[in-house]
Amino acid sequence: MSDANTLDAVRAAGGPIEEIGALFMLHPETFAQSTAHGYPHPFAGYFAGRGGVLGEADASTVDAIFAVFEPNAVKTFWEQGIAVHGAAGGATLYSEQVAEFGRRHLKGADGLDRIAELGEKIIGSAPVTGLPLFAGWKRMPLAEDAEARALQVMFVLRELRGSVHMAALAVVGLTPVEAHLLNKGAQYCTMFGWPEPSGGAEDKRPEKQAAEDATNRRMAQIVGAALSAEEAAELARLTASALAVAKSSATSG
């Protein structure tokens, strides 16, 4: 069971875990590695890498699970991506890229072993029902060294929260475009392949808040089943510290 302190910790950890994953996925180093691995476009590496845990799925299935991209973009990049190293090979390469990013950019961060320890407790006990992307990443092996393992664990935790949130958005009936508009604006729609929308979505803000609240409640249940409230707060504090180190390292020079 969860309590108010665990809920607060889940809210506090959600931002850093989301942001450090995005820092890795959208970093020029990651894009360069994807093209070096033979992918014709960095997003082909992204789709085959992040979605490869789903197996040799049809693009429409990947689209339904990723949920936030324009479907034609999903089809293009997924099919380009799995043609290079296959689905399983793409996922393995991507997991290794996560590890390498951690090795480069988490040096000196506090509590990396503890991040891995606490995060793995959550991952190990979290149910996978209705969360296919998390279910796939939950099975991926982890590196032994602290920097690599900590980032891989945070990446999987991000997939856990993201999978829960996609389900919550579906329940409240918020479309991907509406969610982008209410999150980071029209420029985010175009980044995810959608045409720039002509209207807004302010009338759907209550639905967005309902989805966010439902996500946090469910994550508090999942985290509370694995950690004490004190441990959850510790994980939130350490992930925020790790993000600060990664951002400083990855944006320097």
What report would you give on this structure?
- This protein has twelve helices and no strands.
- Helices cover 75% and strands 0% of the residues.
- With 253 residues, it is mainly alpha-helical.
- It has helices at residues 4-25, 28-36, 42-51, 59-66, 71-105, 112-125, 132-138, 146-172, 176-183, 186-191, 205-224, 229-251.
- The protein has one domain (4-251).
- It is globular, with a radius of gyration of 18 Å.
- Helix 1 (4-25) packs parallel to helix 12, helix 3 (42-51) crosses helix 5 and helix 4 packs across helix 5 (71-105).
Question: How many beta strands in the DSSP annotation?
Answer: 0
Percent strand: under 5%
Give the SSE string. Answer: HHHHHHHHHHHH
Ranges where pLDDT stays below 50 over 5 or more residues in a row are: none
The coarse silhouette is globular
CA-CA gap between termini: 45 Å
Mean pLDDT: 96
Percent helix: over 70%
Main sheet, how many strands, which sense, barrel?
none
Q: Which structural class do the helices and strands define?
A: mainly alpha
**Counting H and I runs of at least 4 residues, what is the number of helices?**
12
Radius of gyration: 18 Å
What is the domain tally?
1
